[in-house]
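chain below, 260 aa
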Amino acid sequence: MTSTVPSDQILDAFRLDGRVAVVTGASAGLGVAFARAFAEAGADVALGARREDRLQETKALVEATGRRAVTARTDIAVPEDAHALVRAAMDAFGRVDVLVNNAGIGTAVPAHKETPEQFRQVIDINLNGSYWAAQAAAAVMEPGSSIINIASVLGITTAGLPQAAYSASKAAIFGLTRDLAQQWTGRRGIRVNAIAPGFFASEMTDQYQDGYLEQQSRRILAGRTGDPRELAATAVFLASPAAGYITGQTVVVDGGLTIA
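prediction:
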């Protein structure tokens, strides 16, 4: 592959003008932050999630930046829904350049009590759903495109909660990312990377018991939880020409949690 970085101004390499990004789990939390950031960087955005009413709120945020948006009700665990979301992007914008595999769920069920159905649901959405979306997007992507899988530091460490299913699903994202990069970067020009966030405000963290995040913050070298915009900025970078020589990697964005 030839270099993708513009030769005139380095900051231009971080822009996504004329690109189209697909964001799953775009109805709340980090998905909203990703969608807004990609629009601010110049991309039109296709938004997928199960809650259509909330998707309309994200769509309005994207359009407020001057960019276009399209929505599709998407249960990412259903392969047909993943393909329908990509088709919606193609029908509206004629291309797909970026996929952010953000949709996911978390549970905190003790392993000796977790049912097969509970465990499978987490794997089906967090891992299988990422695979179905990646397959659907890669089928229409041109060379120079980018897939960003959202993993978690809980695929690396633990955080005092019983999260076997969630941790297993997110650890699996590391391997999925490496293998898809190996298959698609050289042959198809599609870069595949992952982000492993630490603690960021989201619907999942809203479910934590009082005082839990404050307790975990003592483990974070930065001394605080992350701002969703910081995570979104990392995704924009990985999707942009500035990261054109990065593939198969997992970028940990955790304020130093995993090295403390």
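The mean pLDDT is 93. The longest strand covers residues 191-197.
thats it, cya
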